[in-house]
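Hello forum,

I keep getting stuck at the same step: I have a sequence, I want structure tokens, and every attempt I make locally crashes halfway through. Rather than fight my setup again tonight, could one of you with a working pipeline run this one for me? It's a single chain of 291 residues.
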Amino acid sequence: MDNVLNFKELIEKCEFEKLQEQLAAATKISIITVDYTGTPVTAHSRCSDFCNAVRSNPALRALCEKCDSRGGLEAARLRSPYIYRCHMGLIDFAIPIIQNNYYVGAVMCGQLRMDGDSARSYERVIAERSDEAGVPSGEFLYSKLPFVTPEDLNSTVEMISYVCNYRFSNVLTSERSGQSSRKLTKSQMVLQPAVEYIDANFTKEIKLKDMADLCEISPSYFSKLFKKVTDENLVGYVNRLRVERAKDLLRQTGKSVNAVALDVGFEDCGYFIKVFKKITNLTPSAYRSSN
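Reply #2:
Ran it on my machine without issues. Output:
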């Protein structure tokens, strides 16, 4: 079962590039959207002249992309917006896009100076760099970057985070509603309360009787119907969702295998490794190494 739309498809369905341009124009900040690997899925909106000049230097552009990737991953780890300074000392922030407990991408914003940053701040950054090969008119372009106060920054982060996630959520809700109205059989409709609960809470303890009660049927009939509809028993279905989430955490964070196991709902790390290998043909450590 696909828990989220392909992120590029999602961007297109909700006309997100248009919204991104509007947000950039309204807030006077730069915005670009990336997928969970850090690869851009939109063009840069309102990229500053200074950052365009920085990115024209291949060595510095690589550092810009590295900052974007790290910012997005940290936001994914925190499950909330993450504010940081880039390698050139500018204020940036990453807003994670989370759908059905999956990190699917991030909206990267910034290219701002904090109150107190001055030409001397730029000179200090340049003086500390060993890979600085020169930014044409760097000090002049730096002086044109907009300032932001801590209060305005926090308000802007909250506003953009709400707008972006609201837009994505609306599209996904509409998509699911359309699919449900077209495709649900009678058996699927009976199981729907349990399936929706499991999809949203698979990291918690899931009990057969509780799911049967949600559907207002007996545990034995629930088991029979669930196997018929999903081609899996309840334990197998829940474990598969947990393993999919674990794969995200192994790719995107440095958490230990034991910590990942606990995060996705396994109390026994040994059992987690056994289940993970059964589903993926790899141990969690081997999967992380290969990805």
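The chain has a mean pLDDT of 83. If your local run keeps crashing, start a new thread with the error log.
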